Fold this sequence. Notes:
- The protein has 392 residues and is an all-alpha fold.
- It has a single domain, classed as MFS general substrate transporter like domains (Growth Hormone, Chain: A, Up-down Bundle).
- Helix 1 packs antiparallel against helix 13, helix 11 runs parallel beside helix 16 and helix 13 crosses helix 15.
- The chain is globular.
Amino acid sequence: MLAVGVLESAGHTFLLLIAVLHFRAGAIPKALIAAGGSAGLLLSPLAVNLVARWRWPVTLGASRLLWVGAGACGLAAAVNRLEVFVPACMLAMTVGSAIVPLMTQVYQDNYPPEQRGKLYSRTFLLRIVGAMTFSWGGGQFLDWRPAWFPVLLLIFAAAFVVAAIAIGGIPSRPLPDSGSAHPLHVLRYVRSDRVFRQTLIVWMFMGFANLMMLPMRVEYLGNPQHRLGLTAASIGLLTGVIPNLARLIMNPVWGWLFDRMNFFGLRFTLNLGFALGIAAFFTSDSWTGLIVGAVIYGISNAGGDVAWGLWVTKIAPPERVADYMSVHTFFTGIRGVLAPLVGFQLLQHFAPPALGWFSAGLIVAATLWLLPEMRRTAGLRRGQLLTEEVSD
Length: 392
């Protein structure tokens, strides 16, 4: 998980920062880099389908994808050209996120339902420590030797290798083969499971707003056009260290709440936190406002880590958790690819504060959609399947 945390800092901060500060990349290359992880989520049903068809143990399939990411980062480090850097970074982040449904199946198989949130949050602490530590150290390094950015890319390649070896050593079993060669056959669950469908709709609007503004943090802080023009170390502090410190402190709390709290009530609370954090961050040009926004975002993101990664375990049949999760990640990938593109294009016409208010409003609107399901599932608590009382 420490290695995965280092890779998280790559996707959220450093790859985009290198594109902005070293390559002076335009809107499209920056959006493509920002969308790399989402492209992997978009392709995750294909990854799950192939691992199931080839009868690989789940962790073996995940490990082999991570080896591809190591090679892509190594290529980006070796060739100092934007036309190589962008696709290599996209490939690395794509394979890194394509394994998410496979890992959710591992959590389903190994963590007991009544403690799943608690145990997941404990392992996630290591990821947060890795992201927080490297966000600070990497930012300091870039300020000291900006031309040595390939060293960071080699560190990311090494992190992929460590993660591949570690995950490959976890015992796992092959997924049940659905018998369909079409990777999108899993979308049938959207039609057949009403609770699943309703939750995906809410998550689409909320997630689009959040993912549109996530890469905008680096742009807002680092591009002198927006009047801040902070150093790499300061950007790493505000986008990595401070939110991850809040995330580190609150992650166990959210894991405990996930096991005990009504899921829709949990999601309602988290959404409001994301809206408040985005509004505070992008409407401020003072260190106080930026720090407050970063802290609120980190607190909300701590709960989002647990809710996003485990919620399908509450509604999916145990043997189909990877399938359900791949549908969730597929739609996350759609909005994740489109949101940065839309965001960077809107930035050509609107200032970051205006985009911040728009995104916060979109999240609030999506959150209100949850109210009927909150009332409908008010009696459900830990370990219960939402579909027991509310699915058609």
